[in-house]
């Protein structure tokens, strides 16, 4: 019996070794949000290829699908979200995802308009679009408060919602939309909270923001995320090492100046 058990253990060890070797031969699959984030990951992937690291970038527009793709194993990691958003998704959707490293970028959000040139031009009863996703909706409300347009119940942080508006002197109408739709809504509303990850692909200019939130907060850094049981994948570690390079940081500063690099070496 002991001899048979030993053979099972040995066979299992061989299977694990073969599986690990097979995985190492496969390209690393990184899911990224379409647009500037995907552009950034693709640049790093091309740089990695020059170093003999095979990386496949998969661009996806739906944020939930990007996480599902990693959770179900169709991608090895993703790059699009910060820890604050990740914590909410793990809790509400049962994901088992974790950040793989500290390196990443901050993607600011801002209030934009196609109808006015200044926040002073906001009139009574104007409509303001914010994302219907709780975290970015909260960022929109916080930015509206910073702009002096509303006042929120104190102490809520990113858990604040439109029901926490305690002062609204201009009687602004808060319209909640899918995050990808807020930029398009500018044809209809007076003001909208737009994340630059959606703004840039839609042809918007980050410099046109009436007010922009460039808060340096560790909880807002977009980072590589993988399943908790796979975040130490050596292929991912090798790619992240390339991503931390001066070339990638320079690409962000030159090509994506609206983004804020974080956690880079040197």
The end-to-end span amounts to: 58 Å
Output the number of helix runs.
Answer: 8
Strand count: 13
Widest β-sheet, arrangement of strands: 2-1-3-12-4-13
Can you describe this structure?
There is one protein chain. Strands 2-1-3-12-4-13 form a six-stranded mixed sheet, with helices on both faces. A five-stranded mixed sheet has the order 9-6-10-5-11. A two-stranded antiparallel sheet has the order 7-8. It is an alpha/beta fold and 266 residues long. Strand 1, helix 2 and strand 2 form a beta-alpha-beta unit. The chain contains eight helices and 13 strands. The longest helix has 24 residues, at 2-25.
Spell out the key features of this protein.
266 residues, alpha/beta, 5-stranded mixed beta sheet, 13 strands, 36% helix, 24% strand, disordered N terminus
Write the topology of this structure:
Elements: H1 2-25, E1 28-33, H2 36-50, E2 55-60, H3 63-71, E3 77-81, H4 83-93, E4 97-106, E5 109-112, E6 127-131, H5 134-146, E7 151-152, E8 165-167, E9 173-177, E10 191-195, H6 196-199, E11 211-213, E12 221-227, H7 234-243, H8 246-255, E13 260-262
Parallel strand pairs: 1-2, 1-3, 6-9, 6-10
Antiparallel strand pairs: 3-12, 4-12, 4-13, 5-10, 5-11, 7-8
């Amino acid at each position: 019996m002991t001899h048979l058990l030993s053979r099972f253990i040995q066979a299992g060890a061989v299977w694990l070794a073969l599986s690990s070797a097979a995985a190492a031969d496969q390209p690393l699959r990184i899911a990224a949000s379409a647009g500037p984030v995907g552009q950034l990951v693709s640049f790093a992937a091309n740089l990695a290829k020059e170093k003999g690291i095979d990386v496949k970038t998969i661009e996806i527009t739906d944020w939930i699908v990007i996480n599902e793709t990693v959770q179900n194993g169709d991608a090895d990691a993703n790059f699009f979200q910060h820890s604050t958003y990740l914590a909410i998704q793990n809790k509400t959707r049962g994901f088992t995802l974790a950040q793989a490293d500290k390196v990443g970028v901050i993607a600011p959000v801002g209030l934009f308009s196609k109808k006015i040139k200044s926040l002073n031009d906001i009139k009574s009863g104007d409509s303001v679009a914010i994302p219907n996703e709780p975290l970015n909706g909260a960022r929109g409300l916080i930015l509206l408060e910073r702009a002096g347009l509303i006042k929120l119940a104190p102490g809520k942080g990113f858990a604040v919602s439109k029901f926490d508006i305690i002062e609204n002197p201009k009687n602004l109408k808060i319209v909640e939309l899918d995050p990808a739709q807020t930029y398009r809504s500018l044809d209809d509303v007076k003001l909208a909270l737009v994340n630059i990850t959606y703004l840039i692909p839609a042809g918007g200019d980050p410099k046109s923001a009436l007010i922009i939130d460039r808060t340096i907060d560790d909880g807002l850094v977009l980072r590589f995320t993988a399943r908790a049981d796979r975040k130490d994948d050596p292929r991912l570690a090798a790619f992240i090492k390339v991503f931390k390079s001066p070339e990638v940081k320079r690409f962000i500063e030159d090509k994506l100046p609206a983004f804020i690099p974080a956690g880079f070496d040197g």
